[in-house]
Amino acid sequence: MSLDLDRYLVISSDGHAGLPMEDYREYVDPRFRDAFDAALPIQRAMTESAAKSFLIADINEEWRKGIEDDLAGAWDSDARNRVVDADGVTAEVLFPDGVTEMNAPPFGAGFSLGTQGTTKELQWAGCDAHNRWLSEFVSQAPERRIGLACIPVLWDIDLAVEGIRRAHEDGLRGVVFPPMWGEFAPYHHSRYNPVWEVCQDLDMPIHFHSGPSPIQDYFGPMPPKEGQEINQGAVGIYICEVAIWLARPVTFMLWGGVFENHPRLKVALVEGTGIWVPEYLQLLEQRYSDSHYSMKLGDYRSHLSMSPADYFKRNVRIGASCMPRREADMRNEIGVGTIMWGTDYPHPEGSWPHTKDQLKETFHDLPEQDIAAMLGENAVSFYNLDVEKLAPIVARIGPEKATFQQ
Amino acid sequence: MSLDLDRYLVISSDGHAGLPMEDYREYVDPRFRDAFDAALPIQRAMTESAAKSFLIADINEEWRKGIEDDLAGAWDSDARNRVVDADGVTAEVLFPDGVTEMNAPPFGAGFSLGTQGTTKELQWAGCDAHNRWLSEFVSQAPERRIGLACIPVLWDIDLAVEGIRRAHEDGLRGVVFPPMWGEFAPYHHSRYNPVWEVCQDLDMPIHFHSGPSPIQDYFGPMPPKEGQEINQGAVGIYICEVAIWLARPVTFMLWGGVFENHPRLKVALVEGTGIWVPEYLQLLEQRYSDSHYSMKLGDYRSHLSMSPADYFKRNVRIGASCMPRREADMRNEIGVGTIMWGTDYPHPEGSWPHTKDQLKETFHDLPEQDIAAMLGENAVSFYNLDVEKLAPIVARIGPEKATFQQ
Lengths: 406, 406
What we know:
Chain A has helices spanning 33-53, 57-64, 68-71, 77-87, 120-139, 157-169, 193-201, 215-219, 234-256, 258-261, 277-289, 308-315, 325-328, 331-334, 355-363, 368-383, 387-397; strands spanning 11-16, 91-95, 145-150, 174-176, 206-209, 267-270, 316-321, 339-342. By secondary structure, the first copy, chain A, is of the alpha/beta class. Chain A has one domain (11-292, 310-404): TIM Barrel (Alpha-Beta Barrel), CATH 3.20.20.140.
């Protein structure tokens, strides 16, 4: 069976799935269950406090009223299928942190994978618990669910390599790494070579998801002095520079020669917008080719046989969550083959439950082959998907191509 | 006397001046002379070691051969005038760190103003020494020299305000602040309000100069393990993200409401290229006006009566050192009124001694009024210069307009 020629194959490069916090208990290694019981109320309190200072709980709660059944798709297989069917989405890439703050895995697991306030043992225990559950969730609809394993890669390279192999055996099809390395070595360090090796060998794409950034900079040193407001505009700064922190690992990998040495390694940068990509490519190209500017800085290029901009085009993809029309209009500068559209379900900033309308708003009147690439075909290549298995779903729920022409 | 209509007024927004290290001794407060004597050999050794790991000493030394007399323009008034005359430059903005590593002021003064390895007292002593010397240097050709005081603003706000007032009295016409704040409060913090106030009142533009960045990230944790090369591509990463670190203070100031509350405050971002500006403005605009994306993050806008992109256009200028043609072609997106061209003399990556040729390469065949704005008029407004005093110099050494038309 081949694809329905009248409908688009839509693959979301950015979905989230996770259990309600307390339900992770049975997936946690018994050795860490006491720690889990002790940590649960603390995690809940910290989550609520973070929500108060950074997220507007009211909006989240307001938004969730009356759609609780659909949000259960974060962990309930039938609900998930019903919701993505209605959205016209055939398959999804699954990150952790389902309904944002309500579904974080324990012990500092999740897509941020920050190393503050946790330990190697605990963070791995949290990741293992999530990855175990996710494997089950994926197995309930394996053709539609591209599950990503949380891998806290910074602590220990041997553990990371082992964890990636295990995730692959368990049916997960990619990994999530932390975009910020804190006190650990950045991603151009040769200690990560075995990790790049195993990801390339097993064809497990690496994902960095937008979110982490140095929020202590935005909120400043605490406590503020008497009468001084210190964090005015903090959130504006955050949303302005969060994409910079997302792209940083790739800057280090590109110049570090990671894609020179691992030409089939794949990396996705997810929910960080695409508007920075054209200027970033231009900068990489200039910095690689300009000699006068940097002659006094010595040789930083001879270990690279291609321009870093060309590695980017070959090895890196953008998870374009809820991409607006203005970015679709920049598709040739970003790279039509680089963009993988996504919904961000079940997050409130995502396109769900209005995905079909938003798709038309973003893609109307563009060339059919460009739409098809950005909505699904690029993801098919990136994740090496079997289109035959997706075809019946597309025929049933895929958005009709004709509706994209005004 | 008005400007020669056949010649351009050229003002370099990026010049460097400073004494040979040892010659700062007599400008250092006597209380710190013993410390100066003790620190000098250490500073020399550290400078040489930094030059080995980061700068290619050979190229610098090679480049300097035979032009020693002209490089003395870093501190010698007559040599300076001779050199800039020959380059067609009428006036210059003067940063510290003359011939890069050979002329750094003592005790961690300089344009980086990093706070590591120094103290409040020492860094201020170093800045005061440089500022004292610079006042003398400026007084030898006051109409041509826009001297900038080094102000280590992070440590102590009262000291900073006092230092800015003193610099103004001594004939300096702007200040240099550190682009990285380390463990101190970032620039949206209300503790800096008195600083913004005095800079606005005295019309002392604030300058951030490209250079500082988290180099420990590039070179990684030391020492590396056996057989592991850790810093491959480090310099490529550095030159790719150095402009990000330069722009960061402005991101914090924009969202923090600094320009809302100080509408006449002026900031220049120098030698950080201009190619990032169009996308940065677009991002500021989107983040200010998009509501769906950030609704869950609460109100971060109501303290701003304008879009941050509009503050940028009004209050911020780009010191466009050795701007290439490709950026001149982007002038409308960057802002013709935003660009202030510069030579970076006497640094080897600068346009000197080929400034006249480079000017033609960058600006040939552009509208005369655009060239005039970017080469000089924008700086006249920014620094509130007296064109009458500059006119005789322009008539004598300014590049002829006709030579910019092919």
